[in-house]
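Marked as duplicate of an earlier ticket. Keeping the data here for the record.
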Amino acid sequence: MPDRPGFDFDGDYSARYERVIRRVVPGYDDLILLAHAALRMSVGPQARVLVVGAGTGNELAAYATAEPGWRLTAVEPSGAMISQARARVSRRGLGGRVELVQCPLAELPETEPFDAASLLLVLHFQPDNGAKRDMLREIARRLEPGSPLVVVDAYGTKGTPNFARLMEAWMRYARSHGVTEQEERLYREQVEDGIHFVPEGRLIELLAEAGFRSPSQFFRALVFGGWVVERG
């Protein structure tokens, strides 16, 4: 095992994802429902929705179950993760309304513009060296003007006392939900290496640079926040 393992989405982390995610993300299932509600404020019962980062399909299943008229296109580069998403979609009988594409977002084949997009717990894995902005721009160019995007991300100003306190509270939350000491040590290493925190102001700036406007926060818990924005 390397000293700083990061998040291996085609290996160890993908196998543990379903067991870990609800223990480390406060209100994970309710967060997905909140993201759906935030989209539904602007999107009607018939819509084409882009889901960036299909993961294991929890978000897809929730959206498709709640909205029989939505057609979902989900992009996910990890083969191990998308195989779990395909299995979940199949078990729920949602395959006719969900398209799963294994590739980076930039390689997603061109289509007609989408009516909405969802980016949950993905952007923080991109470094702020142009990668975050590029991902947001790829989403923006695939949306109709005025269409909503929901973003949920880990954020904060590293090196500040407040950030350190929130990090310790986050780990305490995880332990209270069954994360062992060994798992916590590994997770801390993965977070240090694999999550690229930026302050809230920088996140809003990146969204504006990518062509989004009117940010409205709908979720906040420790180091996690959720916003809905509009394609300019």
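See parent ticket for discussion. Helices lie at 12-24, 28-40, 58-66, 79-91, 131-141, 161-176, 181-194, 200-209.
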